[in-house]
Amino acid sequence: MTKYHILTLNQISSQGLHRLPGARYTIGRSVEHPDAILVRSQDMHDMVIPPSVKAIGRAGAGTNNIPVAEMSQRGIPVFNAPGANANAVKELVFAALLIAARNIVPALHYVAELKAADPHLEKHVEDGKKQFVGGELPLRTLGIVGLGAVGSLVADTAIKLGMKVEGFDPEITVDAAWRLPSSVRKANTIEELLKHSDFVTLHLPLTNATRGLIGATRLGLMKNGAVLLNFARDGIVDDEAVVAALSSRKLKYYLCDFPSEKLLGRPGVIALPHLGASTEEAEENCAVMVVDEVREFLEHGTIANAVNFPNVEMARESPFRVAIANANVPNMLGQISTTMAKAGLNIHNMMNKSRGEMAYTLVDVDSPIQAEAIASISEIAGVLSVRSIPAEPA
Length: 394
Fold this sequence. Notes:
- The chain is of the alpha/beta class.
- It has three domains: 1-85 and 277-309, Rossmann fold (3-Layer(aba) Sandwich); 86-99 and 135-271, NAD(P)-binding Rossmann-like Domain (Rossmann fold, 3-Layer(aba) Sandwich); 311-389, ACT domain (Alpha-Beta Plaits, 2-Layer Sandwich).
- The protein contains 13 helices and 16 strands.
- α3 crosses α6 (149-160).
- It is elongated.
- 40% of the residues are buried.
C-alpha cells in the first residue's frame, strides 16, 4: 500500500486532517520528504520546497503566501478552498457596515472615557449621543467590486436588508452570475460604481491587475462621506491615498482587515487583525475542502480548485494511471502517446485539459507502468512532472 507524507506548516483543523486515513498518511510539522504541504498563512516564498512535493494545499482562498509561479514551473498544483470561508467574510462585512453606519467605534470610545463615579454620568450619556447619530442601511447603495463566492453572498444579504446593490466584476464566471440576485445593478466600470455608492466593499484577489486598484484618482470619484470596506487583500488599496481621503473628509470611514503602519492611529480607520476567515466553521470548511482536493490528487491524479492548473476529473477505468503536467504546446499529446506505445503501453482512456500555459493529462493504461516508461515521458521537452498512480486494493 502506498504511504503518503503530509507536511503541515500551520495548525490545520482536525476536521480536515481526520479525512486522511492513518493507515496511508503520515501527517506532521516535521515530516521529511513530504508528498504534499498543507498551509494556511505561513509565507513560503523563502522556503526550500523539497523535490518530493507533488502538491500544495492552502486552507483558504488566497495564495499570495505561496510561490505559485515557481510551483507551476515544477508541475506542482497549488490547491485552495474557494468559497469555504465565504459566509464568515460576509458576516464580518455586515458587522463593518453596521459599525460604520451607526458610528459604533467613536461611540464606544466616548463611553470608555466617561467616569463611573461622575454624578452627571447620565447627562453626559444623553448629551454625548447626539454626536453619534447614524443612518440606516435600507435604500443606501452598496457597491460590490468582485462578485465571486463572497461578493455574491454580500449582494444577496444586502438586498434582503433593503439596500440597493450595484456590482462590478469583468471576470465574473457563469456560475457566479447565476448566483446573483436579479436586482443587482451591473456597473459598466469601477468608476461608475464608485460614483453611485454610499458604501463600497472589495472582494477581489490580489493580482498584478488589482494591486493599487483603489488609489487617489478613484477615491476622488466617491461620494463625499462615503465608506470603503476592504476585507479582501491589503495591496488592493493605496493606504496613503486612503489616509488623504479621510483627512479631506472625502471618506468617512475605511474599514479593513489589514492594519498597517500608515493606517494605525488614523482618524476614520477601523482596522481588524485579519479576522475575515477566523471562525471555527470557516477553518473547518477550508481544511475539509483542501484536504479532499489534495487526497484526490495524490491517490487518483484528479485536480479541482488548483489556482495554476485546469480542473481535470476522469473516471478510473484501469488500475494503472499516469498523470502528466506539461507546457501547453502543440503535439504534446502525440509525443506522450508515441512514447507510451514504444514502451508497450496500451492507452485505455485519456483526458487532457489546458489552462493558459499549463496543461494536464491523465492516461489510464492496460498494464503496469515501468520506471523506464516514466523516465522516457519525463524527458519529453515541455513535460514538467510525471508520475504513476497505481490503484490501491479496496
